[in-house]
Amino acid sequence: MSFRRGDFMKNLHPSSFQVVRRLPGSQGQVAFLALLLFFCTLDLPAQPPQGGEETREEIPGLGNEPVRLDAFKVVAEEQLMEARTLAEKILRKEPDSYLGHFLMGFSLHRSEGSLPQAARHLHLAWRQLQGQDLATAPFLWRLWAVEELASIAGEMERFQEQLNLHEKRRKLVMEIRKLHGFSFPGWAGRDGWPLLRLRRYDAARAAIKKALETGQPEEVSYAKTTLCALEWELSRRAEAFEACSDAARYDREHDLETAQVFLNAAQAALGVFRFDLARQWLEKTVTFSPWSASVNPWSDATRLELAQGRWAKAADGLQKAAAWAARQPPSLRQLSADETLLTGSLLLLVAGDGPEAADLARRVLEQPGRTGLASFDVRRILTAAAASGHGAKTLSIGRLSERLPLMGWAAYGAGILERWKLRLQRWKLARRTASLLSRGGILKKAFEPYAPGGPKLPEWHRGELIPILGSGVALASVAAARLSLPGMAAKAYLDAVEAEIRFRRQEHEEALTLARSALQGLSSSEALLRSRVTAIAGHAAAKTGQTRLAKSLFQKLLQGDPGVLRRLELRLPVFFVPTTGRAAKAALRLLQKSPRLEGREWGLPLEIRTESGLLSACVARDAMQVGRCAKVTPWPKATAKQSAIRLYQELHRQLFRPGLPPSQEALESLVHALVAEVAPP
Fold first, then answer.
1. Of 2, 86, 403, 626, which residue has the fewest beta carbons closer than 10 angstroms?
2. CB pairs under 8 A, 24+ apart, for 587-594?
3. How much is the pTM?
4. pLDDT tens digit string along 575-600?
5. Distance CA 349, CA 187 (A)
6. Quick one: the chain helix, strand, coil %, rounded to 5?
7. Measuring CA to CA, which residue among 373, 189, 381 is closest to residue 294?
8. Which residue, 524, 523, 550, is CA-closest to 536?
9. Which residue has the higher pLDDT, 323 or 641?
């Protein structure tokens, strides 16, 4: 679950600043001038001019110097480059200026995400401001400095420091009220989040209750968002669903909507297997400005589309995730970079691009981001990245093995060495994954579907953990999940995992029984998981001699995601139909050597033909319907072997593709756009 970054500017005059920040361009400037006019209409004590010079009336808490008014304008409108320029100008003239240090810290935080440097400048500003008499000094700058410091402390996961800064702010607010009569929100609701992250759950509930009792919409909103995250992290799914839905409804009713509350509601809906409602919340989430969110909702939307087998929409969603990140300020982009890169890795894994999928997973593992505005432990993301990388290496090994029959002796030897290298890299990732799973209680929830506290790995890829953990540990984890999560909806997911465990243990009858049970219970929304279970069931049926059932299961697999066979290192049973012609016979000999095809009399018919100058190979689903085909036009003066090699490559591409972007170039362009915006080198 996600929280929102504090907006300290709203505390001066919440409704006015909300308008200023939402209006673009000249409209925002007009609103800003109207806000200044509001302050100018306040009853202020008259100050006689000194030395015959005209003086300005002082805006309460701000000061009457032009530089302070300029600073106020750039902060109110979040003109980050102008804030940096003004800060540099002030600090050149006065290196100890609190205003210069405040503007520099504000700019570094919001525009660059340089949190340590931003905190250093803001601490310098705070120390300068503390030495001033609050009765006469502009108090708003001191208030804003401590609020920005509190926001940075939370983003840097220094939650006890954040609580201390909240207390300093409360004392400051009381002094301002006593001296000047100004009232500011008490921030009771904001204590709940750092208390939650410190696992002080009772204290967090007390803070939530206190905030709810204030009746102030923004305080109540923060409290409801925290309660949503609290129930989720305590694995109270039904309560979390109710709390998160309530938070979203409350924000909508009070015009406090942010992307976070709707994304939280979507995640909670998935936790109770309400896929339709999750989609509705996500559709609402992506309508918000990237500047208002510490998450990238297109990442979750892409995962949902991918799980449901909507390949084109998943690819489009990842493109929009990159575009969303491009419009986010760097400080927020860093908070959601890991999940966005991980989503890209998973999509490329399904698309069959092992090297690129492994590279995105590596980026997450090498430079994990911050989770200060998310309730989960970063190890959950790292576990998912390591498992995704492990799957990507398995995919790369499989695709390299498919190319080996095409290689000459020298290239074949180099290919064997490369395969051993990939296996070593996969083993290292397996050890990394197992190490991460052993800490933070992640293993207990490794196979619970849509589990709070489990690895942020999609359900269709959870089976990747089985060979990493070993079948004994995996079975124990599934048994524990059955006890903690009863119900028919969860049973189907756990049956799917146990079916794969039993299959890997060569307990084929049990595997088939569990797989068929899972297929009956799984929603049609779980298209990728259903394909994985179908592949397991097909091979288990074949091992138990039920060839008719096995053939029907593989026929269904061709309509879904046959690429899962590569990820599971399994073969597709086919019957090689005899053919004529030199090129066709050469292609048949090559295909019989493929590690992805297995010759069986009962298998799906694979027929190679030469017609109208085209060389084609088709795998039929049944006697009336063609499953998947590959066609090539022989080059002029090409040998039979050259044409056979091209057909071999094209058939493997067409047979195991999921239906994602049509070309490798499109995939590479997608990856480069994602990396450039989310995690530039």
1. 626
2. 587/615, 587/617, 587/643, 587/644, 587/647, 587/648, 589/644, 590/405, 590/406, 590/644, 590/645, 590/648, 591/617, 591/648, 591/651, 593/405, 594/402, 594/405, 594/648, 594/652
3. 0.84
4. 999 998 899 999 999 999 999 999 99
5. 44
6. 70, 5, 25
7. 373
8. 550
9. 641
